[in-house]
Amino acid sequence: MLRYWRPEWFSVCLLSLLLSIGTAFAAWVASPTENVPLCTAKNEQHFPVLIADGAGGAIVAWSDARDANRDIYAQRVSATGEMLWNPDGIPVCDTPAAQSWPLIVADGDDGAIVVWGDTRYGNQDIYAQRIDASGTKLWQPEGISVCTEPSLQDGLKAIADGAGGVIVTWEDWRNGNQDVYAQKIDGTGKPVWEENGVPAYKGEGDQYDPVLIADGAGGAIFAWWDISTPDWNIFAQRLSAAGVPMWGLDARFQSAPTTGSPAMPICTAMGNQGGPAVVSDANGGAFFTWSDYRNDPRFYTSAQLYAQHVNADGTALWQKDGMPICTLAVNQQQPSCLPDGAGGFIVVWWDERDIFADIYAQRVSAAGEVLWAMEGVPVCTGAGVQREPRLVAAGDGGAIAYWLDYREDFGDTTEDAIYAQRLSANGEVLWETDGVPVCTAKKEQISPQAVVAGAGKAIIVWSDARGEDYDVYIHRVP
Fold first, then answer.
1. pLDDT, tens digit (0-9, with 9 covering 90-100), for 343-356
2. Pick from 253, 283, 284, 246: which is nearest to 268 by CA?
3. Cα Rg of the chain, angstroms
4. Which end of the chain is more exposed for a tag (fewer CB within 10 A), N or C?
5. Distance between CA atoms of 313 and 21, rounded to whole angstroms?
6. How far, CA to CA in Å, does 304 sit from each of 48, 266, 296, 405?
7. Amino acid 451: pLDDT
8. Helix, strand, or coil here: 10?
9. How far apart are CA 384 and CA 3, in angstroms?
10. In-domain check, residue 359
């Protein structure tokens, strides 16, 4: 057989081997019309969420209907885009009842804690599971209960507690109206606070869309919008590591939303305020941003962007009811924030100053000074509408913004896309004008989420309708 050997065959074989190795270890694709399929199992996969895995990759969880009812699945993706667990993921919880709306936080040991809404006992309750870096479940096989109080729990949010556990907050109907409750679970899966949670706020009226951040001392800072008065207002509370309220307890702040438990008013200006976002000030306090209709109290068609800085003791450091971030007489909505690494924060939002919604951003110092152009810098002013902007850190004092983009949506079917842009610490756009495409595949892309994947890089995951139904795709930029 050796007499048929030709030297050039060696080059061909070597090239084939190198290509196969490259394919095995570098699965990211550059094309925004292709991307990397993370899960294409039958039926729909929705609401993917992710954390960095500590090795340049990510752990992703999502709601999965492959077995007719909705379950929670997860997958780990390497820094090179390889799927490290079973094809189409591993089940985190697949009981016969429906599980949905997963959340995910890092456990501090290269694994993850996944939280979800669960209907195994009728009304939606809250369950959680911890998985290690290999995908092994560390708590009870079908998860541990966070709250199984018989009423409805909804609007879940979760953060890492900084000690291997998780703090969860939600909207809760146990008192006949919608209040804000929370629970802390330690790294072994045991509840730290009262069974079924403690109130971050309970009282008359309804409280909506709670958000939270860690306070750096084992507790958390919460914000929500409150409709216990004719106007919608923004309130906040800090719970200690023991789940005890720390704000709104002295005579200055007796104007809690109603006669309920204590709370600190962030903004009670005339007109409606809603859609709060909160980010740490790195000193135990927080920056709050929201959309504010105080200048449009009757029609609610144009909201401006306002912010407030509250220290660890619950003292508001800026002017009453907040300072303006953008006050153009148009609509500014969906603020998303992150710390700037220098004591301030960066905020991004969608803005209708040019008729169709575009993406703008601003950097604000700890003293409340806007550091970029007045009324914000343009991130994307391309054709069509841009929505749902979010931020991840770029590692240099700047940020990577990403959003849903409808610049090609001119036909009879929805043509979503996902774009991203990098901003320097000075507010300069560093990538292509109006952003780089993350996904421009046909049909709908929804609910994108991202994490940092090294300096100036991000991994973005979303639910995608390019196939027969919704699947989960993932992409790294740039």
1. 999 999 999 999 89
2. 253
3. 23
4. N
5. 56
6. 30, 16, 9, 22
7. 98
8. helix
9. 66
10. yes
